[in-house]
Design goal:
binds adenosine-5'-diphosphate, 3 domains, seven-stranded mixed β-sheet, binds magnesium ion, Helicase, Ruva Protein, domain 3, Rossmann fold, 365 residues, alpha/beta
């Protein structure tokens, strides 16, 4: 029987016009099937994955930071001057400490260099999508006042056979000429486990070239790798990064900070603690989208205050569209519906904005 998650992701990919949801689900399924020793399934899924070009991924990603601007066009990379402040990235304690230690080393660059030692400059960010990895890379470039080189890994590897090594060297050469932050986003695209059949031959050689270039990476620049799929990342590549920062879907405390940050500047009667408790499962990206939508509605309706009941409606609506890994659990979802009921909404109104049938609501609320 067809796996419902794959069907769901295929439909979402079709509707959204890009392959990211499907690629993500297939990747996960491959890792799971590998664990279960289902080699036949792994082989079939990999064949399917091969059919999916993931070019649109990069277009979507690099456009998401509209405030930062691009200053150079190359088929292999984008050079971006970021203006994302570090304070706007909501990070867990461990990530915060790691990043501030890294930055304090960079502030003392000259002092260290006099002793022939250099700040840490190879950083790997890993964890589920929509948790702020790419955003953090932008923020670090801004903080360090360096241009950000966004490498288009799909272009780097999809070019003519044998040219990939040359492309990698060309990109790393930028870091020798000037101080830059190089971001290898979705680094697993290039550095998948070499035992993977798909990666034999050319790609195996590519990983070797990448390893050599990482080893020789100059002290004056920073290399950041980011991945949603650390389990399929080549182990040797993984080891090359001196600092690894794990990202997770935000905790209740971090969700509160995210809501606060993204609703800033608007008056509201929202109980942030309650909303944060009930929005379990939403990542930073979903919370940002929800807040933008809430603010849009308030502005367009000509009101001056965000009402809690309106905010909850948006959360429910958006959670319906979120993918299965980024959804509010049923129990919390019901609690949100209950609040709407307490605010005087009718069951059929609640049913129309939630994905719960009228009769189920009637029996449960
Ligand atoms: N930790 C976070 N702090 C602040 N904003 C976040 C965070 N995580 C996600 N976002 C919002 O979601 C958007 C997408 O996040 P992104 O950095 O692309 O996630 P990732 O690279 O982990 O998939 C960001 O531009 C930002 O607006
Ligand atoms: Mg990203």
């Amino acid at each position: 029987m067809a796996n419902i998650k794959i069907v769901e992701a295929a439909i979402r990919s079709y509707i959204e016009g890009n392959n990211i949801p499907l690629i993500d689900v297939l990747d996960k399924e491959i890792v799971e099937s590998k664990k279960r020793g289902n080699h036949h399934k792994v082989k079939r899924l990999k064949e399917l994955l091969k059919l999916l070009p993931n070019k649109q991924k990069y277009i979507a990603q690099t456009n998401s930071f509209a405030n930062s601007f691009q200053t150079e066009l190359s088929p292999l990379y984008q050079r971006v001057i970021s203006n994302i402040p570090l304070e706007s990235v909501v990070l867990n304690k461990f990530a915060q400490e790691t990043i501030s230690r890294l930055l304090s080393e960079w502030e003392k660059y000259e002092m260290l260099a006099r002793h022939n030692i250099y700040p840490t400059n190879k950083l790997l960010l890993y964890g589920p999508p929509g948790t702020g990895k790419t955003m953090l890379a932008y923020a670090l470039a801004y903080k360090l006042n360096m241009p950000l080189i966004l490498v288009r890994l799909d272009e780097v590897i999809s070019s003519y056979l044998g040219k990939t090594g040359k492309n990698i060297r060309e990109i790393f050469h930028i870091a020798e000429k000037e101080n830059v932050v190089i971001l290898l986003d979705e680094i697993d695209t290039i550095a998948k486990n070499r035992d993977d059949e798909r990666e034999l031959g050319e790609l195996k050689r590519v990983v070797t070239v990448l390893l050599q270039n990482i080893d020789n990476f100059p002290n004056n620049s920073i290399l950041i790798g980011a991945t949603n799929h650390e389990s399929i990342l080549d182990k040797a590549i993984w080891r090359r990064f001196t600092i690894k920062v794990q990202f997770d879907n935000p905790s209740e405390e971090l969700r509160k900070l995210l809501f606060k940050h993204y609703l800033e500047g608007f008056k509201s009667d929202i109980d942030l603690s309650l909303i944060s408790k009930l929005s379990e499962g939403l990542n930073g990206s979903a919370i940002k989208d929800i807040c933008v939508d809430i603010k849009k509605r308030v502005v367009l309706s000509g009101k001056s205050t965000i009402r809690s009941v309106d905010a909850i409606q948006v959360i429910l609506l958006m959670s319906n569209y979120a993918n299965s890994q980024n959804k509010i659990p049923k129990k919390k979802y019901y609690s949100l519906c209950k609040i709407l009921r307490q605010h005087g909404m009718t069951l059929s109104e609640i049913s129309s904005i939630s994905d719960i049938p009228y009769t189920t609501l009637r029996d449960n609320l």
